């Protein structure tokens, strides 16, 4: 069930003309990238311009979209938005952009949650020369040492042993992560 705040936001959306909706929509998408929960502090005096009102609306739309996409599939979302009185073209825009919005929200969450920083990665290849277990001799393996630094500054070393196939899969995932970070201009 939607809270009163979300219901009033949907009502505002249903009453907007196309130009206002599209302007608010663009700002809401930008807001989703950088949204941080902030405490509302009312000033001693308030002067609101149309731009300020538009920014407030876009912030509310961004918060609504994030909530709706967390709790609903695309089909449920379409039904909910249609039943709330939104025009069909507005619902179609939201549904067509839902995957993009989910990606924006998840990338923002990752940016706001500090992770460990990879400092060093070393590996050694090995072959089992002899073993008392049958079939172990001649098996290849890779020993990996991962050195990382936590947000608090502590440096940790982790040692992992894996098969050659697992190592190549791991290396492939590291290359994909590097390419993604380069694409997003983080490296």
Question: What report would you give on this structure?
Answer:
By secondary structure, the chain is of the alpha+beta class. It is built from seven helices and three strands; from the N terminus they run ααααααβββα. It has helices spanning 4-15, 18-34, 50-71, 74-83, 88-96, 98-112, 164-183; strands at 117-127, 140-149, 155-162. The protein has a three-stranded antiparallel sheet with strand order 1-2-3. The protein is elongated, with a radius of gyration of 25 Å. Residues 36-51 have low confidence and may be disordered.
Sequence-ordered SSE layout with sheet pairings:
Layout: H1 4-15, H2 18-34, H3 50-71, H4 74-83, H5 88-96, H6 98-112, E1 117-127, E2 140-149, E3 155-162, H7 164-183
Summed over residues and divided by their number, the pLDDT gives a mean of: 76
Task: Report, as a whole number of angstroms, the end-to-end distance.
Answer: 42 Å
Largest sheet, in brief, is: 3 strands, antiparallel
Proportion of residues in β-strands? 15-25%
Structure class: alpha+beta
SSE string, helices as H and strands as E: HHHHHHEEEH
Rg: 25 Å
Spatial strand order of the main sheet: 1-2-3
Number of helices: 7
Task: Give the total of beta strands.
Answer: 3
Low-confidence stretches: 36-51
Helix content: 55-70%
**Which overall shape is indicated by the principal axes computed on the Cα atoms?**
elongated
In short:
The chain is an alpha+beta fold and 187 residues long. The chain contains seven helices and three strands; from the N terminus they run ααααααβββα.
């Amino acid at each position: 069930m939607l809270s009163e705040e979300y219901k009033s936001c949907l009502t505002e959306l249903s009453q907007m003309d196309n130009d206002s909706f599209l302007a608010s929509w663009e700002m809401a998408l930008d807001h989703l990238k950088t949204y941080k929960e902030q405490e509302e502090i009312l000033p001693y005096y308030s002067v609101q311009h149309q731009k300020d009102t538009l920014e407030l609306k876009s912030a509310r739309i961004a918060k609504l979209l994030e909530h709706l996409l967390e709790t609903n599939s695309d089909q449920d979302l379409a039904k909910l938005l249609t039943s709330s009185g939104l025009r069909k073209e507005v619902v179609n825009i939201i549904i067509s952009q839902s995957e993009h919005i989910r990606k924006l929200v998840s990338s923002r969450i990752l940016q706001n949650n500090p992770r460990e920083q990879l400092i060093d990665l070393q590996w050694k290849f090995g072959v089992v020369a002899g073993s008392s277990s049958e079939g172990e001799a001649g098996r290849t393996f890779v020993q990996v040492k991962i050195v990382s630094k936590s947000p608090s500054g502590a440096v940790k070393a982790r040692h992992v042993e894996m098969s050659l196939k697992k190592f190549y899969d791991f290396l492939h995932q590291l290359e994909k992560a590097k390419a993604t970070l380069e694409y997003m201009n983080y490296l």
